[in-house]
Amino acid sequence: MKKLIYYTFMMISFVAFTGCGGGKSGSAEKETPKEDLATFVEREFEYPIPTSYEVTNMLQKANANFVVNITNSPENVDNYVTEWQKAMNLGVFGADLSYASTYNKQEQTVDFLNASKTLIEDLNISTAFNASTAGRIEANLENKDSLILIVTESFYNTYNYLNQNGAEKTSLLVIAGSVIEGLYITSQLIVASEYSDALMEVMARQKGQVQKLVQLMEKHGTDENVNRVLPTLRYINLFYDQIGDDGKITKGQFDDVSKSITEMRSTIVG
């Protein structure tokens, strides 16, 4: 595939994740974003959809609270033994990491980072997670803009690394886990808010992510692991097709689709 040049934005779109950048983990320095937030990054494989940060940023702008018990507990990381479980939960923890970092939850950010590192090592992609990345994240826990940039850049590096090494299906499972976790977090916050219109809009705006993910996964529709979630994703895609031009979601529509989201997410996290 031809190399592509594209922009990485500080306040960029948000799912999967692993490393970047120089320096030693023990001496990582805090990073201050430049006034020009856009930087040129060269990648062989262009990240196909917005990352999980886009969802969590929308949730924060909609004044949603941070609710820690709706995320996947980092203690579950040792329960994942198969490759598909590890890949999809790497995506889940990547979304949870974005959620925590968006809300400046430092303890949870570190916990999700450590869970992700475990799965990265188990999947033998630790070379993509540069030793300095964890140090950079920990050094910038109080610097939200820099933290988001580092985490977002790591999403791109993970996707690029997996595809360079012939692991396209694994990269899609990571992305799927992240998208599904974003849907799940949104749906749980909607219920907690008693169907906030602003949060319903956040759910509606995830339509493009789901559509693109289904398109990508359909290319591997005969794969057993892809099909663990693809049928439900197709159903959720139909739900989005039924939303009117105004983007409004009725309570009945939401209640129906949220059950599918919860069941699919349970299949992944156990």
Task: Provide structural commentary.
Helix 2 packs antiparallel against helix 3 and helix 6 runs antiparallel to helix 8. This protein is mainly α. It has a two-stranded antiparallel ribbon with strand order 1-2. The protein is globular. Helices cover about 55% and strands about 5% of the residues.
Any descriptors?
globular; 10 helices; 270 residues; two-stranded antiparallel ribbon; mainly alpha
Indicate the topology:
Elements: E1 4-8, E2 39-43, H1 52-61, H2 83-102, H3 106-122, H4 131-139, H5 144-164, H6 168-192, H7 197-204, H8 207-218, H9 230-241, H10 251-269
Antiparallel strand pairs: 1-2
Helix pairs in contact: 1-2, 1-6, 2-3, 2-5, 2-6, 6-7, 6-8, 6-10, 8-9, 9-10
- Give the CA-based shape: globular
**Structural class designation:** mainly alpha
Instruction: Report on the biggest sheet.
Output: 2 strands, antiparallel
Quote the beta fraction. Answer: under 5%
Q: How far do the termini sit from each other?
A: 36 Å
Order of SSEs, N→C? EEHHHHHHHHHH
**Widest sheet: strand ordering:** 1-2
Helix content: 55-70%
Output mean pLDDT.
81
- Could you give the count of β-strands? 2
- Which residue ranges are poorly predicted, with pLDDT under 50 across at least 5 consecutive positions? 1-28, 32-43
Count of helix runs: 10
Rg value: 17 Å
